[in-house]
């Protein structure tokens, strides 16, 4: 799985064999498309069909997934981000689920996973901010590890957009790139 900032630009780079295999570093070539899937977004449903690539050396295949989407999730990163933002504001999983129109168990699982890996998410955000714009580093402790993590990730996403000026404008897509598509899939610390 390769998270890309812009699927159209990635498709063009792939056709020119400018993308590299994350496993061995050799050039990737187009290899068709992944199966279509429908995901929930804030405005309704979206059907996506990501491009696939195959390494010219090791033969491994990879899916080029737009940063707006998370691997193996039926919801966009923006949808998930709204749930996390609701939790930071102090809302419970039932209220968030009702506001978003998502199953309570799904939202509860997201919040549990995010809270379990909050410190790792905060570290990712802080490291990115320090590398991109140390002046933007959040200095306030919110008292909630998840709130600290989200604040650090948002600061990093804003710093990345300011520094590079391209990539996704959507803050949650930028966060998906920073976490390499593993916003909810990091291995728990400890």
Automatic annotation (TrEMBL):
Gene3D superfamilies in the cross-refs: Winged helix-like DNA-binding domain superfamily/Winged helix DNA-binding domain
Pfam families reported in the protein's UniProt record: DUF6431
Lineage top rank: taxon: Bacteria
Domain DUF6431: 21-110
Full protein name: IS1 family transposase
Organism ancestry: Bacteria, Bacillati, Actinomycetota, Actinomycetes, Kitasatosporales
